[in-house]
Amino acid sequence: MSSPPSFALVDPDNQEHQVPEFPSRDGPQRLVAAATKQPRNREKIRLEPGHSPLDWAKLVSSGKDLRGVSQLGRYTLEEIRQHRTQEDAWTAIAGKVYNMTPYLKFHPGGVKDLMRVAGRDGTKLFMMTHSWVNIDYLMEKCMVGFLVPSN
Length: 151
Known about the structure:
Helix content is about 25%, strand content about 20%. The protein is built from 6 helices and 8 strands, in the order E-E-H-H-E-H-E-E-E-H-E-H-H-E. The chain has helices at about 30-35, 55-60, 75-80, 110-115, 125-130, 135-140, and strands at about 5-10, 15-20, 75, 85, 90-95, 95-100, 120, 145.
């Protein structure tokens, strides 16, 4: 009988240790994972030159007005629905309203993907696809206000 697959680790004292592979190739963890329906693969699109994450960071720190409003406001979903074109795209995420128009061409999934939440509350979709992203940091300069209930 052959030994289970393993790989070598070297500790700080330069000692080599053989560590078993986990999860094992025919183990229950891999079998369950293989039988679990995987989400549809999202494809990143090729961004136009000048629209990399680094370019977004430069734009955000440039001092340019990315909000498009003079001061933070309070907006209902009805008001947000008026901003659902590529020239004027707003969304609400976790109770905050963002003018995402300046970010459209920087989004790794492309303009079309981001337009899915234009003019509506995008919290659920955002959390399903980008729960690890710090929206407050990424879109801070694009925040236009807060989502409030309709009267």
